Amino acid sequence: MIIPKKxxxxxxxxxxxxxxxxxxxxxxxxxxxxxxxxxxEQIIKVNKAGEGNMNFTIRIQTTKKSYILKQARPWxxxxxxxxxxxxxxxxxxxxxxxxxxxxxxxxxMPKVLQDDKESCLLLMEDLGKGKDYLExxxxxxxxxxxxxxxxxxxxxxxxxKVHDSQSFLNDRMRELNHAHMFAIPFQNNNGLNLDxxxxxxxxxxxxxxxxxxxxKNINDLGExxxxxxxxxxxxGDFYPGSWLQTSSGIKVLDPEFCFLGxxxxxxxxxxxxxxxxxxxxxxxxxxxxxxxxxxxxRYAGVEILRRLLGYAQLPLKMDLQEKEKLIQRAIFLLNSxxxx
Length: 340
Description:
Blueprint: H1 4-12, H2 24-34, E1 43-48, E2 56-62, E3 66-71, H3 88-99, E4 112-116, E5 121-125, E6 131-132, H4 144-159, H5 171-183, H6 201-208, H7 212-226, E7 232-234, E8 243-246, E9 249-252, E10 259-261, H8 263-276, H9 293-309, H10 320-335
Antiparallel strand pairs: 1-2, 2-3, 3-5, 4-5, 6-8, 7-10, 8-9
Helix pairs in contact: 5-7, 8-9, 9-10
């Protein structure tokens, strides 16, 4: 019997292979038929590679090395009830192919080794069993050296010359992100009960969505994000969940939301999460001369609000008072910055 998820997947990709860890015999047969490995390379085991937000990801261990196999499905893996464009893997491959042209960036991100467009599957280099940086929200501190490395990654990424801009429009993923960043968190009856996360948080949200000036600022910024079609190549989701701690330093993953736009967006997302995680922000002063800090601050403000009031919740151990303090800081960032 075809399970509902598989049926839905095959409705979108009738010729596709549905990645299923519960049917390893079928998986091994699929991989053998693809001839992605050398003839003398045998698969030892496969297992889930972490809890992905957007995609279903497994680790494949062979007699020679380890790989990551990643599938985009027509839903968000963490929230299957939310539809998501399956074309995101095509854009992600284009991103990794682009950054591979830069000698430094090629060492900071995984390489795409093989792909199956009919199945929206990417076979990727495995950077090792590192950990993401979500522990920053639990009190761990990021070092100045790590922050400097992240800045350098963004600087090199944003300096890349992109010749095929059509590959990075990523309109449908931007529409999805726009909805969850600039719209849904500020709607009544959006299906999310904030009081189940933090009692009385719904009351704070109710006050926020009565502030028409604030909502206009958020809406205007959202239109700016949504309508960008040129500028720098951006990661699009540059937060601690996309940073990987490895034995050779920080690596960056998961650029599904990449697009061409204002570099302040990437820095603004990073700034927001360092604020949320109560990290040292002093190093942002070193780049303030090269960025529109007003725009960066506004992107940071709305990112803080969506992480506290929307579906994209973080592993925070905060009470209502702490969240309210963060919300007020986010509102200050959104309202105190002048518009262009």
